[in-house]
Design a protein that fits this description.
Elements (H helix, E strand, L loop, with lengths): L8 H24 L3 E7 L4 H17 L3 E7 L5 H8 L7 E4 L1 H9 L5 H11 L22 E13 H7 L7 H11 L17 H12 L17 H14 L12 H5 L5 E5 L3 H5 L1 H4 L21 H4 E4 L1 E3 L3 E12 L5 H15 L1 H8 L7 E2 L2 H4 L2 H4 L5 H5 L1 H8 L10 E2 L2 E2 L1 H8 L2 H10 L5 H17 L1
Parallel strand pairs: 1-2, 1-3
Antiparallel strand pairs: 3-8, 4-5, 4-6, 4-8, 4-9, 7-8, 10-11
Helix pairs in contact: 1-2, 4-20, 5-14, 21-22
Length: 460
């Protein structure tokens, strides 16, 4: 048996208990027909997470000896490119990805919406967090995915610094800008804020949250591109102003190191950061000087950081907006009926409570439950590393409550804008913001160029 992380020990015991029971079934099955082979692609690329997921897959394969599953971790920014390169013959049967990507694959007619709907019906529509099914549904009612887990996103900040300075939490545009400027001290290698400026998805996530808090969207109510609107341009101008208080150079999420080393006042991140803030062994990767020349490394873990950190999930300028990612399981089309059935069985297996909670515990905080009963259960909140214990149940449920206020470019007023998924998948917004914040190119020119590129993308 493969070597596994100790956090999967309960599952190992289950495997051991099932081995005698499954041996005869496995022999009988393999004597008559070869197992169908499917691929499961996940965005969980860290090795320790993959080890824990593999344990769950090992149990699934013992219980389902007619199915062989190969897991492939794929970086967020490489997902679409690798899927295109794989072609139909090597296409994965089940993927764990964001709604924007899954919706874009639905636009490309490679999503098995009937299988997705079948899994949702099998699990039960009423078990999912209220409203979450609307986030995986096209305008025609078909499902491009199955709600799997979600992470709330927003600004994490040094509440102790803000209190000492007499500053309000970073929950409005004015408060964000005032605090970013106040705490920025580049001469002493301290920075006011972290937002994305590299041409990648993280940048688009930050911008989306700020844009929707200003009533700005990619499309208007009639489905026309809307990035030349005053609200959109105002958001771009504000984004550029905020970026002045970033660490130097193009930045992405990796610059969280500054915050964890006490060199940053606030940073935009998802709830995936919760274990980094509360566990020394997880934070260790951010306590080095390997990633940034102006961080010397060798910093000690601040045990009070979790206590001194607060989270602003709601941002307001003209309207309040929360943001996050509802990660989906999406079954892709296959000409082999056995592969479709195997993918459905694996999706249902992941979403059964006895396997769902261990999967969510692969990244405590980052993977919040989409099943209401699980989210509120003591079993879910008792993760093996005590991350949720460090925050407390009340705080966890407060963070999760933001799901009901989430906005993005894919949905508005109950209508789905699938073209937005195509635009986001191609990182057109991120390229525009990089040119404006790092290359210092003209805002009007870049918005016009991005609008043309978006039009080409959605009309091809």
């Amino acid at each position: 048996m493969r070597k596994i992380a100790k956090n999967g020990m309960i599952l190992v015991l289950l495997v051991a208990a099932l081995l005698p029971l499954s041996a005869n079934a496995q022999k009988e099955t393999t004597d008559t027909i070869e197992p169908v082979e499917i691929q499961f692609w996940t965005r969980q690329t860290q090795s320790e997470r993959q080890e824990k997921i593999q344990v769950i897959l090992d149990v699934f394969q013992i219980l389902n000896p007619d199915i062989k599953v190969t897991m492939l971790p794929v970086e967020d920014n490489e997902f679409s490119a690798q899927l295109a390169a794989a072609g139909q013959a090597n296409r994965p049967s089940l993927i764990e990805t964001s709604p924007s990507f899954a919706m874009s694959y639905s636009n490309e007619n490679i999503v098995d919406s009937a299988s997705n709907a079948q899994v949702i019906k099998s699990i039960g529509q009423d078990v999912f967090y209220p409203g979450s099914l609307n986030n995986v549904k096209m305008n025609d009612g078909t499902y491009f995915g199955i709600p799997f887990h979600f992470s709330a996103q927003g600004f994490w900040y040094r509440a102790d610094w803000f209190k000492e300075a007499g500053l309000e939490p970073p929950n409005t545009w004015d408060n964000l800008l005032k605090a970013a400027e106040y705490f920025n001290d580049p001469k002493n290698k301290q920075y006011g804020i972290l937002i994305g400026t590299k041409p990648e998805n993280y940048t688009q996530q930050v911008f989306t949250h700020l844009a929707t808090s200003n009533g700005a969207h990619l499309f208007d109510a009639d489905g026309n591109l809307n990035i030349s609107s005053p609200e959109f341009k105002e958001t771009v101008e504000f984004y550029k102003e905020l970026s002045k208080f970033n660490p130097p150079g193009p930045q992405n999420w990796r610059a969280r190191d500054y915050y964890i080393q006490g060199k940053m006042a606030m940073f935009y991140y998802s709830t995936y950061i919760m274990d980094d803030l509360s566990l020394a062994e997880v934070a260790s990767a951010s306590l080095t000087g390997e990633n940034f020349a102006d961080l010397s490394g060798g910093a000690e873990f601040d045990e009070n950081l979790v206590k001194n950190t607060a989270f602003s999930p709601l941002i307001t300028n003209t309207e309040p907006s929360a943001y996050g990612e509802i990660m989906t399981l999406s079954i892709l089309k296959s000409e082999d009926a056995r592969k479709a059935e195997a993918a459905r069985r694996l999706a249902e297996f992941f979403l059964s409570d006895e396997n769902y909670i261990p999967y969510l515990h692969v990244a405590p905080g980052g993977m919040l439950a989409m099943k209401t009963s699980v989210l509120e259960s003591d079993a879910f909140l008792a993760d093996p590393n005590n991350v949720y214990t460090n925050y407390g149940k009340e705080k966890i449920l407060e963070i999760a409550s933001g799901l009901g206020n989430m906005q993005d470019f894919l949905n508005k007023d109950g209508k789905v804008y699938p073209e937005s998924a195509t635009i986001l998948a191609k990182n057109i917004l991120a390229e525009m913001l990089y040119n404006i914040t790092i290359e210092d190119k003209d805002i009007d020119d870049e918005i016009a160029a991005a609008e043309k590129e978006m039009a080409r993308a959605i009309n091809n």
